């Protein structure tokens, strides 16, 4: 069946909005669509939330590239430096797809790939980002209809590879993207500016892209309009890997550590300065991110010893962690050694940054990916620089060096450790050796023999106590017989312990912080490789209400869609008001808030005494989202935080009695 031209136009454009990375004004297919059956008109349009094994394609990718001549009435925005023309996405009737996802609540405007800084190429490589000068202006209207290249990365994950998405990588990458309801504009000043949701991607500070279709903002914006509380979605790129996080004494001396965090900071300045032109409120900006993006949220809350630069009003930190490199002589020597290997492999002296700046990007790419030089992913990470990262991240929170009076959501998943546990663990000593090898507790002298024994007691060798997944006997030779124990320890060490400690510190009456809300995600994804697991990153497709065919796709079951509506509704309410409970949304599918919007549990504020948090769940057995106490594995989690901070002491004989 031939699609009506108006629908084909909208769908083709929407494919661009939903993350299919474009190199021109039109989205390019990342895989071939199945042939349309004569009696099945829907097969020419993606189902939007079916499994890849069913032969489905992403909405938009199944259509021919858009004829540029068909684009009319491009939205234009006038910014401080000049004007940009974006793309208008018309509504898409949900009935045109097999799912109920569509753009149902009005058209959207996309402005993609807009530079927020001078691009870090040539002599600006390995330097802090430089903001666009006030006199850097242009005449006419520039195109903002396609994503920029992703910042060059040393690695790639499965969801970035075909058939899920294909994208370019380079150094001309410091750009932002804006998705807004088409009704929003600078002329809406008398109606009130819209709140802004800024997303910063994760990837271990080693990879990532704002063009990644998993971070599509169109679904979220559409639901916000349906709830009667429209928001503007913004995403940004920042440098990662060796180009974004150089390490060692040379980087310290030349003040080039943490370049990716400085990129983010400059982007936040650009957003605050320019968002009014898009119809956004510069005084209602929520910054959000997951994993390394979540850790970035903690860095921005503690930047410059907690100085408030007015760049954001609220924070959402999903799976955040203490990401600063340990400051020990042993670890510093390691960093210097890796930096020397990196520069020598590039043919440069270790302190000759000019040599590194002259090299073609391809030469540096070969070094980063060379099997002769094994650079661990955790190498290229933030370091204390005395400025933006004034102290170790944990120490900043312990000392009260964070912005005050701003509400925050802190979130983690129940099985975070499945992504971080050490595989092949069969003995207690192997677990201890892995912690030491990873420098996971921050110093040479903190993880003493006494601490090691106490940790093993806090996490006993009883597999039934740990996260409720089972790899099966056939995988035991690979996973190890203490795999679940390892995953519990490393998940707590990496994600849960920092989240709980930050929640306790910020929620104390003396902290001066804003309201704190804590949540946990327990829902197993429909296409999880191991049954019963809500591992790292699993919640992202629910927060974004994103059914696109990636490994993090939202499942087709009604329970998954309802849970996505629920989570996105809480997030939108928080972005709008600073309180996840304030906006319930309209009941029913047409309202975008989900059928159970009016009966969602009241999400309590977290306090150090009650420690109540929201557990997200919607299972076939009847388990639903509910308020529970944040009290699991208390002794082990407390100990991990104390050892890292250097405050842990063995129990006295009296305490043991």
UniProtKB/TrEMBL annotation:
It comes from the Eukaryota. It is an enzyme of class 3 (hydrolase). The keyword Hydrolase applies. Keywords: Hydrolase, Signal. GO terms for molecular function: carboxylic ester hydrolase activity. The keyword Signal applies. Its EC number is 3.1.1.-. Residues 1-19 form the signal peptide. Gene3D superfamilies: alpha/beta hydrolase. Residues 107-621 form the Carboxylesterase type B domain. Belongs to the type-B carboxylesterase/lipase family. This is Carboxylic ester hydrolase.
């Amino acid at each position: 069946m031939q699609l009506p031209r108006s629908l084909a136009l909208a769908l083709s454009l929407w494919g661009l909005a939903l993350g299919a990375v474009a190199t021109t004004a039109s989205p390019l297919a990342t895989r071939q669509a199945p042939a349309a059956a004569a009696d099945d008109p829907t097969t020419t349009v993606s189902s939007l939330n079916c499994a890849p094994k069913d032969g489905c394609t992403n909405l938009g990718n199944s259509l021919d590239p858009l004829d540029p001549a068909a684009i009319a009435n491009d939205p234009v925005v006038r910014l401080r430096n000049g004007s940009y023309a974006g793309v208008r996405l018309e509504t898409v009737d949900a009935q045109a797809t097999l799912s109920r996802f569509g753009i149902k609540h009005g058209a959207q405007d996309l402005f993609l790939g807009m530079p927020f800084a001078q691009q870090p190429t040539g002599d600006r490589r390995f330097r802090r980002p430089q903001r666009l000068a006030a006199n850097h202006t242009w005449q006419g209207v520039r195109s903002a209809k396609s994503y920029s290249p992703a910042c060059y990365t040393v690695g790639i994950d499965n969801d970035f590879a075909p058939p899920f998405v294909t994208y370019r990588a380079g150094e001309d990458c410091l750009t932002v993207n804006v998705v807004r309801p088409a009704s929003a504009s600078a002329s809406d000043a008398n109606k009130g500016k819209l709140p802004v949701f800024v997303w910063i991607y994760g990837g271990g500070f080693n990879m990532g892209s704002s063009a990644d279709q998993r971070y599509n903002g169109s679904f979220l914006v559409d639901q916000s309009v349906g709830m009667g509380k429209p928001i503007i979605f913004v995403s940004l790129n920042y440098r990662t890997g060796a180009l974004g996080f150089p390490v060692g004494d040379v980087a310290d001396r030349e003040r080039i550590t943490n370049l990716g965090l400085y990129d983010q900071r400059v982007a936040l300045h650009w957003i605050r300065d320019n968002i009014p032109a898009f119809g956004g409120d510069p005084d209602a900006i929520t910054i959000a991110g997951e994993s390394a993006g979540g850790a970035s949220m903690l860095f921005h809350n503690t930047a410059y010893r907690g100085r408030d630069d007015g760049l954001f009003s609220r924070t959402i930190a999903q799976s955040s962690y203490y990401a600063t490199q340990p400051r020990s002589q042993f670890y510093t020597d390691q960093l210097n050694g890796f930096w020397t290997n990196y520069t020598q492999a590039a043919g440069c002296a270790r302190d000759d940054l000019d040599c590194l700046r002259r090299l073609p990007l391809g030469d540096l790419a070969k070094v980063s990916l060379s099997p002769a030089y094994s650079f661990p992913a955790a190498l290229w990470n933030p370091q204390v620089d005395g400025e933006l990262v004034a102290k170790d991240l944990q120490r900043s929170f312990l000392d009260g060096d964070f912005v005050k009076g701003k509400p925050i959501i802190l979130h983690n998943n129940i099985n975070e450790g499945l992504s971080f546990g050490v595989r092949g663990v069969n003995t207690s000593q192997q677990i201890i050796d892995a912690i030491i090898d990873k420098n996971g507790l921050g110093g040479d002298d903190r993880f003493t023999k006494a601490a090691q024994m106490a940790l093993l007691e806090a996490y006993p060798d009883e597999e039934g106590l740990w996260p409720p997944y089972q790899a099966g006997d056939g995988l035991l030779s690979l996973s190890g017989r203490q795999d679940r124990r390892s995953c519990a320890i490393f998940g707590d060490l990496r994600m849960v312990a920092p989240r709980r400690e930050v929640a306790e510190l910020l929620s104390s009456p003396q902290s001066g912080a804003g309201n704190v809300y804590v949540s946990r995600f327990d829902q197993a994804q429909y296409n999880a490789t191991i049954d019963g697991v809500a591992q790292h990153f699993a919640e992202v497709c629910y927060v974004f209400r994103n059914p696109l065919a990636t490994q993090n796709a939202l499942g087709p079951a009604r329970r998954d869609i309802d849970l996505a509506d629920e989570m996105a509704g809480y997030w939108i309410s928080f972005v709008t008001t600073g309180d996840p409970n304030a906006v319930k949304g309209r009941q029913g599918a047409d309202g975008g808030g989900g059928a159970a919007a009016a009966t969602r549990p009241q999400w309590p504020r977290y306090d150090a005494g009650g420690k109540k948090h929201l557990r997200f769940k919607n299972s076939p057995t009847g388990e639903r989202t509910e308020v529970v106490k944040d009290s699991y594995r208390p002794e082990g989690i407390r100990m991990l935080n104390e050892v890292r901070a250097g405050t842990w002491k063995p129990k006295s004989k009296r305490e043991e009695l």
